[in-house]
C-alpha cells in the first residue's frame, strides 16, 4: 500500500485528540452555568453537582454553619484533616460556603443567590424548602429560568412522598429492587448462612444513580431552556433512578407471575458468565452462545461438557448451571489467573472459532497499581491547595473539545465565604463579620 | 412534616397523568445508534424518554444479539426481556453497514442527526469508513460517543470486555458481597446500565457546549473507568492508609448505623445518616439513652469498629422482635430510614411507583400493554414518556428512509433487492413480530 492509503492508526489519531493529559488546555462545556448545591447528608446531590463542576460549571456548595453531616461519612471514622473520605472525594471544584437557612437573613441571602443561578440541587425532606419560603414555588417567581432539582427517596408526590422516612443510600438500594436479586443463594435452602442473603452493592450505588439521573435530567432541561427560556422543577428518587437499571423485573412478573430469583454470581440469562476461584485468586470466564461454549469447552479440554449441555436451554437451567460450574472450576483451580488468561487469549487469537472472554477479579489495591488506569488518567494524583496530595478518579468521558477535569478536591467548611459573598453579593470584611456575628454564616 | 398543601401543589405540577399535554426536552435531537447488548443501547433509550428521536441500526436478519437474551430462555410475546426494555421509543432499522450503499445510508442519517452512539470494538467504525474521522467531515456538529470496556487506546486495547469484567477489573465486585464469599457480581448489568446513564450525561454536556458554539465532539468512554469513578472512598482510603478495601456485606462501614437486619417476618434495611436521624431511631427503639452514650453520640464515634459492631448488635436484637410493618411505621413516625427489600412483584403493585410512572404501562401499538421500569426523573415542563416498547428487526426501514431521508419508493425497493436493507428472520426467536401479527399493525405508512 502506498503511504496515502495508510492514514494514522485510529488509536493514535484519536488519542492525539482526546488524551486527558491535554484536558487542562481546552474549553469547558458548562462554564456558562452556575449551580447551587444545598445537599444535606446526601451524596446523590453531591455527585450530581460534581458532574456539573467537572464539566466547568461554577458550583456553590451551601452548608449549614456547622458543616454538612456528609463530611463525617468515612470508613471506620477515618478523617483526613477533619474531613471524611467520602465527602473529600466529592467536593470537586466546588466553592464551599456556609449559610444558616433557619435565619431570615440566611433565607434572604439564599433567595438572592438562587435568583442568579441556573440549576439548584437540594435533598431536604419534601416541602421543607417550600415551608421556609425558598422552594421552587417561590424561587421561580424570582427566576423563571431556574432548573430546580429535588432529590428524595420517595419523591415529591405520590402516596409515600409524605411518609417522613429519611433518605440514606442503603434504603435507596433496597427499594430499587436490585438488592433482592443480588447476593448468594443458600447452598442449603433450609439452613441459609448469614452471608447467603440479598446483598447491596458495596459502594453508595443508590445515591450515585440518583445523582447521575439528576445530572442527565437537569442538562436535558438546560437544553430545553435554550429554546424556550423556561426553567422547571425536577423530582428525582435515587431508588427509582437505580431501579431503572434493573434487567427485567416488572415485565418478568407481568409475563410469568414470578420474581427473578437471586442466583449469586450466575446470570439467569447467560451461562457461563461468572466468576471462578483459581489457584491464586479469581477469574471471570464466559462462553454462552453455542459457538462460544464450544470454544470454552475446547480450552478446558472438555468436549464432553459440550455434548452434555448442547443448547442454551440446557445451559440456562439452574441445576445444570451448578454442575457446569463445578466442572469448570476444576480447571480454573488447577491454574493461576495468568495461565487462564494466556490460554484463553491464545485460543481467541490462534484458533478463533468463537470467543471466550477472560477477566480478573481485581482487588482494588491491584486496580490502583495497574498501569493501564494511570496511562489513561483514570487515576490522577493531584495536589489540592488545602488537602494536599491525593488520588482521584477522573470521569470516564474523554472528550475532544471540552474534557472534564478536577481542579481541586474539596474545601473546608465555609472556606469560600469571603470570596463568594463578595463576588455574588458585594459583601466586604465588615458585612461578612456582621453576618458571622448574627450567626448567618 | 411537610404539609398536605405542598404535596397537592407538587402533584399538580408533576402529575404524570398530564405528560401527553406537555412538550419534550430533547424533541429536536436525533440519535443514530449502532450498538448491541446494553451499554450502547441503554444510552439512547434514556435520552429517548426525554424526547430524542432514535434510529437504532441493526444488521438485517438476526440483528442485535440482545434479542436472544432472556431469563431461563423464556420469551414474552416473542420478545427477549433482556432486549425489550432498552428497545423503547426507537425506530428500528436494519442496514448492512458493511457494504458501500449501506454506509452511504448510514452517513446520510448521521448528516441529519445530532448524536452517534456506538459500542463496537475500538477502531471498527473507522475501518468501515463510518467512524468519527469520516463523519465529522460531513457533520461537524456531530456528538459521537464510543462506549466499550477499556477505551480506544492504552495497554488494555486488545481486550474484549463485558459488564461482568468492568465490575471485576474496576474492583467493584471485590468491595461488594460478604468476606466469606466470592466477590459479588451485581444481580443487574450494573456497568452497562450505569455506564449508559453516565454516557448520556457526557452527551448532554457536549450538547450544552454545542448549543453555544455549534461545535460537536468525540467522547471516548470506558465502562470500567466509570465504575472506578463511583467507588466512593475506596481510593482515598487506600491512598492515605495503605490498607485495601474489603467486603463488608450489607453493612456500610462509612455510615453508621446502616445495615440489613432480619425482623420477625422478613429482612429490613435500617439506616441513620445524621445525628438527628440516629436520635429518632433511638427513640423509636425506646432506648433514647443510646444517643447520649459517648460511644454513639457522634457519627465519628459510631463509626469506630467496636462501637459500630455493638450498636448494630443492639439494633439487630431490637429488629428481631418487630415485624417489618412495625419498623416501617416507626421509621415514618420518627424519621429514620427503613424499607424492605423490594422485588419485581412489590414494584408491580406499588401504588406509589405506579402513580409516579416508575412502574410504567407502555401502550404499544403491536405488543399491547407492557409493564416496565419506566421514568426515573419527573420533569414538570417536559416529562419523560414511553411511546412504544420495541419493534422487530428492520421494522421501520421504509418509514425512516422516506420520512427522514426523502427516498423514493423505487430506491427503497432496490436497496431491499440488493440486500442492503432487510427485515427479521423467524429463527432464532426474538426478531419477528408477535404470534398472530396481521402483517400491518404497527407499520407506519403501510
CATH architecture of the largest domain in chain B: 3-Layer(aba) Sandwich
Mean pLDDT of chain B: 97
How far is the first residue's CA from the last residue's CA of chain B?
56 Å
CATH superfamily of the largest domain in chain A: Crotonobetainyl-coa:carnitine coa-transferase, domain 1
The class by helix and strand makeup of chain A works out as: alpha/beta
Low-confidence stretches of chain B are: none
Count the DSSP helices of chain B: 18
The CATH top-level class label of the largest domain in chain A: Alpha Beta
Largest sheet of chain B: 6 strands, parallel
Strand content of chain B: 5-15%
Largest sheet of chain A: 6 strands, parallel
**The number of domains of chain B:** 2
CATH homologous superfamily placement of the largest domain in chain B: Crotonobetainyl-coa:carnitine coa-transferase, domain 1
Query: How large a portion of the residues of chain A is in β-strands, by DSSP E?
Result: 5-15%
The number of domains of chain A is 2
CATH architecture of the largest domain in chain A: 3-Layer(aba) Sandwich
**Structural class category of chain B:** alpha/beta
The count of strands of chain A amounts to 14
Rg result of chain A = 26 Å
Amino acid at each position: 500500500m502506498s503511504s496515502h492509503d495508510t492514514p494514522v492508526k485510529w488509536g493514535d489519531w484519536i488519542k492525539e485528540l482526546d488524551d486527558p493529559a491535554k484536558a487542562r488546555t481546552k474549553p469547558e462545556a458548562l462554564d456558562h452555568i452556575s449551580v447551587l448545591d444545598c445537599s444535606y447528608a446526601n451524596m446523590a446531590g453531591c455527585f450530581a453537582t460534581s458532574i456539573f463542576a467537572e464539566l466547568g460549571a461554577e458550583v456553590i456548595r451551601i452548608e449549614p454553619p456547622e458543616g454538612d453531616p456528609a463530611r463525617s461519612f468515612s470508613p471506620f471514622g477515618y478523617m483526613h484533616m477533619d474531613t471524611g473520605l467520602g465527602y473529600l472525594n466529592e467536593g470537586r471544584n466546588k466553592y464551599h460556603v456556609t449559610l444558616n437557612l433557619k435565619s431570615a437573613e440566611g433565607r434572604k441571602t439564599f433567595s438572592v443567590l438562587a435568583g442568579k443561578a441556573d440549576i439548584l440541587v437540594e435533598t431536604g425532606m419534601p416541602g421543607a424548602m417550600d415551608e421556609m419560603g425558598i422552594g421552587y414555588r417561590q424561587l421561580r417567581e424570582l427566576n423563571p429560568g431556574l432548573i430546580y432539582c429535588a432529590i428524595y427517596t420517595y419523591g415529591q408526590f405520590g402516596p409515600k412522598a409524605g411518609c417522613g422516612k429519611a433518605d440514606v443510600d442503603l434504603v435507596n438500594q433496597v427499594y430499587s429492587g436490585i438488592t433482592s436479586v443480588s447476593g448468594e443463594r443458600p447452598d442449603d435452602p433450609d439452613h441459609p448462612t448469614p452471608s447467603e442473603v440479598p446483598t447491596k452493592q458495596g459502594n453508595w450505588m443508590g445515591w450515585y444513580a440518583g445523582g447521575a439521573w439528576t445530572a442527565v435530567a437537569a442538562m436535558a432541561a438546560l437544553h430545553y431552556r435554550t429554546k424556550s427560556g423556561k426553567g422547571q422543577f425536577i423530582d428525582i428518587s435515587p431508588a427509582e433512578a437505580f431501579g431503572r437499571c434493573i434487567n427485567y423485573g416488572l415485565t418478568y412478573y407481568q409475563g410469568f407471575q414470578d420474581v427473578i430469583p437471586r442466583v449469586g454470581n450466575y446470570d439467569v440469562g447467560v451461562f457461563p458468565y461468572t466468576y471462578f476461584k483459581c489457584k491464586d485468586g479469581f477469574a471471570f470466564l464466559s462462553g454462552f452462545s453455542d459457538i462460544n461454549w464450544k470454544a470454552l469447552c475446547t480450552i478446558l479440554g472438555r468436549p464432553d461438557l459440550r455434548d452434555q449441555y448442547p443448547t442454551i436451554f440446557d445451559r440456562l437451567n439452574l441445576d445444570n448451571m451448578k454442575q457446569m460450574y463445578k466442572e469448570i472450576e476444576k480447571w480454573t483451580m488447577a491454574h493461576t489467573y495468568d495461565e487462564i488468561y494466556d490460554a484463553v487469549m491464545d485460543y481467541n487469537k490462534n484458533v478463533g472459532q468463537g470467543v471466550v472472554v477472560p477477566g480478573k477479579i481485581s482487588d482494588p489495591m491491584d486496580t490502583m497499581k495497574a498501569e493501564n488506569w494511570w496511562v489513561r488518567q483514570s487515576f490522577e494524583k493531584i495536589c489540592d491547595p488545602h488537602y494536599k496530595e491525593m488520588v482521584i478518579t477522573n470521569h470516564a468521558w474523554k472528550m475532544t473539545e471540552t474534557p472534564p477535569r478536577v481542579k481541586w478536591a474539596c474545601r473546608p467548611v465555609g472556606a469560600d465565604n469571603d470570596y463568594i459573598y463578595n463576588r455574588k453579593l458585594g459583601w466586604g470584611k465588615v458585612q461578612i463579620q456582621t453576618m458571622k456575628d448574627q450567626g448567618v454564616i | 412534616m411537610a404539609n398536605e398543601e405542598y404535596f397537592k401543589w407538587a402533584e399538580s405540577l408533576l402529575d404524570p397523568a398530564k405528560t401527553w399535554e406537555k412538550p419534550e426536552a430533547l424533541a429536536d435531537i436525533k440519535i443514530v445508534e449502532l450498538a448491541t447488548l446494553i451499554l450502547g443501547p441503554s444510552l439512547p433509550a434514556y435520552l429517548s424518554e426525554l424526547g430524542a428521536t432514535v434510529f437504532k441500526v441493526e444488521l438485517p436478519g438476526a440483528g442485535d444479539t440482545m434479542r436472544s437474551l432472556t431469563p431461563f430462555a423464556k420469551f414474552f410475546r416473542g420478545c427477549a426481556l433482556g432486549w425489550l426494555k432498552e428497545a423503547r421509543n426507537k425506530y428500528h432499522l436494519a442496514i448492512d453497514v458493511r457494504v458501500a450503499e449501506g454506509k452511504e445510508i448510514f452517513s446520510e442519517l448521521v448528516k441529519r442527526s445530532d448524536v452517534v452512539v456506538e459500542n463496537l470494538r475500538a477502531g471498527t467504525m473507522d475501518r468501515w469508513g463510518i467512524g468519527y474521522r469520516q463523519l465529522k467531515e460531513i457533520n461537524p456538529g456531530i456528538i459521537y460517543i464510543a462506549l466499550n470496556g477499556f477505551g480506544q487506546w492504552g495497554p488494555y486495547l486488545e481486550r474484549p470486555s463485558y459488564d461482568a469484567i468492568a465490575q471485576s477489573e474496576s474492583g467493584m465486585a471485590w468491595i461488594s458481597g460478604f468476606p466469606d464469599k466470592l466477590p459479588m457480581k451485581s444481580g443487574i448489568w450494573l456497568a452497562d446500565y450505569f455506564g449508559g446513564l453516565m454516557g448520556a450525561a457526557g452527551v448532554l454536556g457536549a450538547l450544552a457546549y454545542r448549543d453555544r458554539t455549534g461545535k460537536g465532539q468525540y467522547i471516548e468512554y470506558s465502562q470500567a473507568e466509570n465504575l472506578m469513578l463511583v467507588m466512593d472512598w475506596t481510593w482515598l482510603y487506600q491512598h492515605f492508609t495503605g490498607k485495601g478495601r474489603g467486603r463488608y456485606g450489607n453493612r456500610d462501614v462509612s455510615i453508621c448505623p446502616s445495615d440489613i437486619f432480619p425482623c420477625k417476618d422478613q429482612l429490613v434495611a435500617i439506616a441513620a445518616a445524621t445525628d438527628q436521624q440516629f436520635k429518632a431511631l433511638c427513640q423509636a427503639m425506646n432506648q433514647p439513652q443510646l444517643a447520649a452514650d459517648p460511644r454513639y453520640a457522634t457519627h465519628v464515634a459510631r463509626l469506630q469498629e467496636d462501637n459500630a459492631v455493638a450498636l448494630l448488635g443492639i439494633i439487630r436484637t431490637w429488629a428481631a422482635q418487630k415485624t417489618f410493618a412495625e419498623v416501617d411505621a416507626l421509621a415514618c413516625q420518627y424519621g429514620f430510614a427503613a424499607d424492605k427489600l423490594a422485588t419485581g412483584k412489590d414494584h408491580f403493585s406499588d401504588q406509589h411507583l405506579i402513580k409516579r410512572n416508575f412502574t410504567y404501562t407502555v401502550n404499544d401499538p403491536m405488543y399491547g400493554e407492557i409493564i416496565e421500569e419506566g421514568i426515573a426523573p419527573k420533569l414538570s415542563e417536559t416529562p419523560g414518556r414511553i411511546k412504544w416498547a420495541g419493534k422487530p428487526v428492520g421494522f421501520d426501514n421504509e418509514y425512516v428512509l422516506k420520512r427522514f431521508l426523502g427516498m423514493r419508493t423505487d430506491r427503497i425497493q432496490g436497496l431491499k433487492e440488493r440486500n442492503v436493507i432487510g427485515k427479521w428472520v423467524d429463527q432464532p426467536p426474538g426478531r419477528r413480530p408477535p404470534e398472530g401479527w396481521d402483517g400491518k399493525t404497527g407499520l407506519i405508512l403501510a
